[in-house]
Sequence to fold (394 residues):
Amino acid sequence: MGVSQSELKQVFKEHFEAAPTVLVVSPGRTEIAGNHTDHEGGQVIAAAVDRAVTGLARPNGTDYIRLLSMGYGEVEVELDDLSARKEERGTTTALVRGMAALFEDRGIKPAGFDMACTSEVLGGSGLSSSAAFELELGQAMNALWTDGKLGAEELALMAQRAEREWFGKPCGLMDQAAVALGGIQYMDFFDPTRLVAKSIDFDFAQAGYAICIVAVGADHAANIDDYAAVPAEMQAVASKLGASVLSQVKSEDVISALARLRPLLGDRALLRALHYYREDQLVRGRAQALTEGNMNEFLRLTSLSGASSAMFLQNVSVGGASEQPSMLAIALAEELLGGQGAVRVHGGGFGGTIQAFVPLDMVEDFSAGMDAVFGKGACGVYNVDHQGARFTWL
Fold:
C-alpha cells in the first residue's frame, strides 16, 4: 500500500533533489452496474472511491519524464519519439508515452518533469489501478503543460486511448470516466467519440448499506487474454449481423440468428452477447432505483446481474481451473449475507475482486468472515470520492 503525502514529499526531495510544485490525486473506481457493457456501446453506473493514486511533480527542464512509483521503481521516457512500441505493451512506460503523445496530438508541447507516485489502489484488483494511474499522469500533464485547460471528459477519452493503443488492453471507457468525473455516474457509451454521463445523488450509507470490495487473492491482470476475449466475442456476434458493437444490434435479431451463428462462433460468444442485452437493461433499472431511492429494487436487480455474469458472461472463473477464488468468494458472501444485501463479480472479472452491498449492522461479521478465508484486510469498505482526478498547486 501507499505512503503518506508527507513521506512521499520527502522521497521526492531526496530522489529528485528539488521540491514538488503540484499535487495530483486520482481515485480508483467501483463498477456499480454494467458488467462488460461499456465496450459494446451500452450503459453503466460507476463511482470513484476513496482509495487513490497520489503523486507529486515538478518540471525538470529536460526532454525526459522521470517517474518514481513507490514499490515499482523508476521509469524514464524521452519525449523525442512518443509513438507506441510493441515491446512496451503492458508496461508503465507505455502509459507515460501514450498520455504524452495524446497531449502532443492536441498541439500541446510536452516538456520534461519529475514525478513520484504512491498508490492505495491495489493493482489487478478490479478497482482500475490502470485508469487511476492514467488520470494521475493526465492531470499532472494537464497542470504542468496547460495550467489545467483540459476537462475531465477529454482526459478520460485520452486515458482510454492510451490504454488501448499504447498499453494494449482493449478496454471500454467506464473506468477512465469514473475516475475522471468522480461521484456516482450513470453513463451511456453509444457514441464512442464522446462521454455522456449523468450524476446520481445517492448515499449508500444513508440507505443503510456499505459497499464492500473483497480482494480474492488473484491478479486479474494475469488474465488479459481472457478479458480481451469478452469484447472480441461480443463484437464477433455484432459483426455477423452487420454491426461493429452489440448496441447497434437488436436483441431479437441475435436471438433469431442463434441457430445460424452457433456453428460459426460457438455457444460462449452467443451467451456473452445475450448477457450484454440483459445487463444493459438491468443497468437502466438500477439507475432508476437509485434515482428513486429504492434500495430494495437496486439489490434485487444487482443479484440478477451477478447471476448473469456468472452464467452467461462467464467471467467469474477461468475455464475448468480447480482454483476459482472469485466464485468461492461469491458463494461465501451469499452464506454470510443470509439473503440480505447483494453480491456480484466486480469489474473485468477473472480474479481480482467481488463486490457486496452489505447492511451496516452486518459489516463487521461479513468482513471477518471474508478475511478468514482470503486473508486479513481482504474485505474493504469503500466510500464514494466526489471529486475525481484533480491537481493542486503547492
